[in-house]
Amino acid sequence: MVLYEHVYILSSRAHAVECVSLxxxxxxxKLIGLVQQxxxxxxxxxxHRRMAxxxxxxxxxxxxxxxxxxxxxxxxxxxxxxxxxxxTRVRVTFxxxxxxxxxxxxxxxxxxxxxxxxxxxxxxxxxxxxxxxxDWLGKYRxxxxxxxxxxxxxxxxxxxxxxxxKSGKADGGGQKKEDERxxxxxxxxxxxxVRDDLIRNSQHISSNKDQMLRMPQFGLxxxxxxxxxxxxxxxxxxxxxYSFFLGTYNVNGQNPKESLSPWLASAAxxxxxxxxxxxxxxxxxxxxxxxxxxxxxEWMLAVYKSxxxxxxxxxxxxxxxxxxxxxxxxxxxxxxxxxxxxxxxxGTGVMGxxxxxxxxxxxxxxxxxxxxxxxxxxxxxxxxxxxRNQDFxxxxxxxxxRQEDPTLPPLTIMKHNVxxxxxxxxxxxxxxxxxxxxxxxSKKDFETLCNHDQLKRQMDEEVVFVGFTEGxxxxxxxxxxxxxxxxxxTSEKCRVPAWCDRILWRGKDIKQLNYQSHMxxxxxxxxxxxxxxxxxxxxxxxxxxxxTFEEIVRRIDRLExxxxxxxxxxxxxxxxxxxxxxxxxxxxxxxxxxxxxxCQFEFIQKLDEPFYCxxxxxxxxxxxxxxxxxxxxxxxxxxxxxxxxxxxNSGQQQLEDILVLHLERGKDYxxxxxxxxxxxxxxxxxxxxxxxxxxxxxxxxxxVRELSMxxxxxxxxxxxxxxxxxxxxxxxxxxxxxxxxxxxxDLFQQPGLRSEFEEIRDCLDTGSLDTLxxxxxxxxxxxxxxxDALPEPVLPFSFYRQCLDISADSSQCRQIIxxxxxxxxxxxxxxxAFLQELLKHAAHNRLDASVLGPIFAVLLLRSPTKQDxxxxxxxxxxxxxxxxxxxxxxxxxxxxxx
Amino acid sequence: MAKQYxxxxxxxxxxxxxxxxxxxxxxxxxxxxxxxxISTIGVDFKMKTLEIDGIKVRIQIWDTAGQERYQTIxxxxxxxxxxxxxxxxxxxxxxxxxxxxxxxxVDEYAPEKVQKILVGNKSDEEQKRQxxxxxGDKLAKAYGMDFFETSxxxxxxxxxxxxxxxxxxxxxxxxxxxxLGGSMNEELNLAVLEEQEGLCNGSDDTxxxxxx
Lengths: 898, 212
Fold this sequence. Notes:
Chain B: One of its GO terms (biological process) is protein transport. Chain A is an alpha+beta fold.
């Protein structure tokens, strides 16, 4: 019973959605449902197998009661751009636990979240007057997997979500929606029908293991191929006739007492098929109540013994509902061509359900034709013809054959190429007195009689058996005789004779060879009837089938290939000319979706690379969505900053990269980026700059590379490569400020102009001008940028720790300076002397040590890692020692390098 | 109708720029040939369904950029392949010599079980031939590979070479597939049993009297 409540939830689509749980990077597909009981709500989370069909395929994992502590918020992941059609991501929190879910895009998810939020706000309104108790959740504990199912609504729970690791593999397949539908449907079916073996005995085989083994993405494709094959059936099939013997016999609960050969073996040549139907096989109440009868094997044997002696027959199937039985035999050689056989039964008797009346049916495929055979026993009594019409309709509606592919809807009778319908249809003769009827029969005036036949009349009115054909009746009515004789009913009721037992067909290429009753059989109050049909069956020509099949596969392949996302790029190669330090350059690549489907694009990283592009490059946007026929312009931006400049300056790296533009489920495109970089003193090391006697861009690239290698290894030959004391570029900037900006107010505090910085940079790198261009503030900023861009700060990283440790001790600080590499020591002394000089003019420039100190401290004593507050304080403290004037520090700036 | 299980394989076309990898693919999947050479700049793929030993095999064929500057990037695609075509142009001695380099890259980056075949394309251009068939044969033997000379232009040996590689991949993965197939067969056998039960659900008498 517990399950029924689940079923209810899952079958109500508005309250259940498919989702993907994201747990510690493990994605798992789940079903989530909102369950309501006594105005309390909880979320039920189920894991499910692929292609879940029955209740067995879903497992309750998790129950999250919607209490005051519950919340659900929509989250947007920072690394995922919001695109149209993206999944909705929500975080469900409950007490101290968290669960992240991805719901598929669409109104259904929205509706669901709305319901959940409403349930929660209801709880909040009542809080704290009334707390939900969740007593009803207790019983689900048994159902759900593992011990850790129900999260207690009261008291903190220590159960961590991390325990919730499942064996099932997670995958966001395209089939998800489909799965959910089938779960809902099939469960609904389980709920809606009260199954009772007393009434129905058809076994449903719920196993669909083979389906699970199949990769789901092929399911759709297989159906497509099937569909196409069906459409092109004429191309590879041809018609061949087979004879079908159909028989119907109401045996009035009797045992077989005589040979059935006169009925079953009446044809000259043996028929290919036997479909033999009985009604009233057993009238005992045991048969009625337990659907069990010893007469089944007796009549089966009687039939088998009386089949045409000139052929060997294989028994194929028996189906019985109380007294309605259908037997199916086929010539041995045809058995191999019968497939996809299913049986169904439907009771239309007492209460419209019991099996005293109703029908049994067998469906099968013979070669390429679908055939359905129905044996029925419709409602009795002359005046009840409308009830019989209704029974017919109920049978047509309620007989539903399971399909091999469980995702396909069940097959009804009328979906078959050929429908053969036999049985005690119970239609009588209307508007005639019994004597008149008997007189007409004796005159063999069946034509007049037929005009009074209820079935013929109802069929003429097209209210029953629409589309069916019945052959001409030229045998006398088969009901009702005194048992054991050919005498009409002599009982008190003295029933009017009628053609109760009938055989009809529906379909193409069917010809009746014979339609007759068999008067010699006297066991029952009915006479058996037989019909011999010649039915054109579609046979497959293997050769042309193969051709057609291959053609279809080819077509679908092509379709599929056409649907692979595809774009065209305006260009695939980009060259950036004369790229300079801190100078932005951009070019645009236009991406046009020339495929037949919308697509999602993204630049993806290459093997062993941390990011999709080199640090000096960005693509904007780097991912997105493109509608069919749509275009997007992507800016490719190059910007060399202090972290990328050193390797480019030294020639260790070039401006070269290849971007990989990836389309989801599609191709990859390469975009190659090249550029010529103009090396700069910004981002070059002090040691290298000291070795460069010319402006950096005036030197051949190879020399720069060679010198920077030398400066690194420090194996320079002091004779040939006598380095300058300090870099000339530094001297130029400091000297400029020394000359013109000593008294400049707010020096180092006001920003410079970007354009002027570029001029200053070019001047330093090319030596084009003797004096620096730009305002004092721009030069000051250039100086700061220069220091900031040094790959190794003035106080090298290796000294950083030590400097901090001794920052309180002035003499130790000075001691450290004396052991710095020479050019670093020179630069340090030069800069501190300059700063002291500035401080002398404090009256004009309003600078003091507490302003200048921090600005330069963080540049000269740069941290290799992120600094904390104490470190920052110590860095400032360190520099303060040098901003106090001492005579020995003086005069260095009076000695500029050549 | 017996159910078939599907398998999906990834095959990769490798070789110098201009040897005709894209043309081989187009000929095989679309039966088309475009004589003008447009360099593939990136990685393209197409799908094709084949039937091998009654198994429906769907193959995804990846066509890679052959130009040297992209080779560091295309290498990252190797590890997803189950089969690799090493393609050279019979009218280009150079492209043939480069096969050694391609093969060693494959050894380094592709999965161990990967299947390889050697393809000498443009066999229709006999008058421009620089690589003798024997040379191709010899190299293929040295590497233990199958060898085909093909022409995307005349459609010579195209289906043969693709089918052959698919077969090799299928064989190499036979064990895994048999596991899958084995359980499938069990299912089929079960279905047969159910059918037989249906036959015999009467009493002993009837069982004697009916056969199948």
